Amino acid sequence: MNHARHARAEQLIAEERVEGISQAEREWLAAHLQECAPCTDLARQTDQALRLMRAAAIPFPSGLASRTQFRVRLRAQELRERKPKRRALWLTCAVSWIFGVASAPYVWSLFEWFGQHTGAPKLVWELAFGLWWTLPALFVVAVLLMERVRQGDEPAWMRQDR
Known about the structure:
Layout: H1 3-18, H2 23-35, H3 37-55, H4 64-82, H5 86-118, H6 122-153, H7 156-159
């Protein structure tokens, strides 16, 4: 038998145990193993080595799972504490809305004056005033939506304590 057939058989023996082979390759390998004693020994040794590896017990240090779980929870708590608080966002929005309400008549006059001096249609400067009024609310909605999306990407174990 030539070296190429043995090399192919060795490769198929390894592939069959790891990722699987096609039916045609399996049939070729079975036929080859019936005629070739060295390849049959290799297949038997490979099977035996895999069985021994599966049966081998790997000792882990006692308390490894609890220590790992403790560290993961500690890290999750640390990440939550570093998360920006919403209080600043709500306070900024409240101040913005209070300032908006207090300054609305003056801003309305400013937009009206600007519209008259530029010749802009009344609808344009009224829409600009409305946009000025709703801009803080749109900003808050955008921030809250981004935070919601970010929390959706967060693993469940980080959200369970909330």
